[in-house]
Amino acid sequence: MPDLAALHARALGQIDELLAVAEDPGPFPAARTPASSWSALEHAEHMARADDGALHQLEAALERDGGPRIKLAGRVVLRLGWIPRGVGKAPATTRPDGADRRRVADALVAARRRLGELAPRLDEIARSRGRASHPIFGGLSAAQWLRFLTVHHHHHLKIIADVRRAYERSAAPSPRGVG
Q: Which of 16, 25, 161, 164 has the fewest C-beta atoms lying within 10 Å of its C-beta?
């Protein structure tokens, strides 16, 4: 498991990147592109919802001693730091429902605050033996939940980057007078 202070800092920075998407006043965040079935803003909304659940589970793991075991899929994803695209479906509670930018930004600010408040508990997170269930990966320890946050953020930030590139290509002026 990587250094928890580094993971914590990385997760905070990733939320800042998602917040920048939600607060972008231009047309890009809400634009539809072939790069994803969700807009960048919908990815940010999904992350706000998923972070709320992940932080709840991280906190629940801290209150327990034991719990369900991690599944092979969870071990692989956390070790590789990579979630394959298009394989899993987001749970219904984390799917975007068209929240406006302000609501998404407010939810991301709340997630960042909650995550920030865990900084003094990183040693406790490292020592915790409790686990809380992830719908696909099984029981994750508090430290594994923190790792999951960074892996999940990275996954969606890469998709958002692809959405941005597709948007910029579609918004670029086409060459004139060829032929």
A: 25
With 90 as the cut, is the pLDDT of residue 2 above it?
no
CATH number at residue 14: 1.20.120.450
Take residue 175 and report the two structure tokens written for it: 């060459």
> Is 177 within a domain?
no
Q: Residue 26 above 90 pLDDT?
A: yes
Contact yes or no for 61/55 (Cβ under 8 A): no
Question: How does DSSP assign 136-173, residue by residue?
Answer: TTEEEEHHHHHHHHHHHHHHHHHHHHHHHHHHHHHHSP
Q: Which amino acid is at 179?
A: G
Nearest-angstrom CA–CA distance, 51 and 73: 20
Q: What confidence tens digit (pLDDT) does each residue in 27-57 have?
A: 999 999 999 999 999 999 999 999 999 999 9
Q: Which two tokens stand for residue 127?
A: 């020592």
Structure-block tokens of residue 43:
């990815």
Confidence of residue 172 (pLDDT cuts 50, 70, 90): confident
Place of tokens 């730091």: 81
How many domains would you assign to the chain?
Answer: 1
- Looking at residue 179, its pLDDT comes to 47
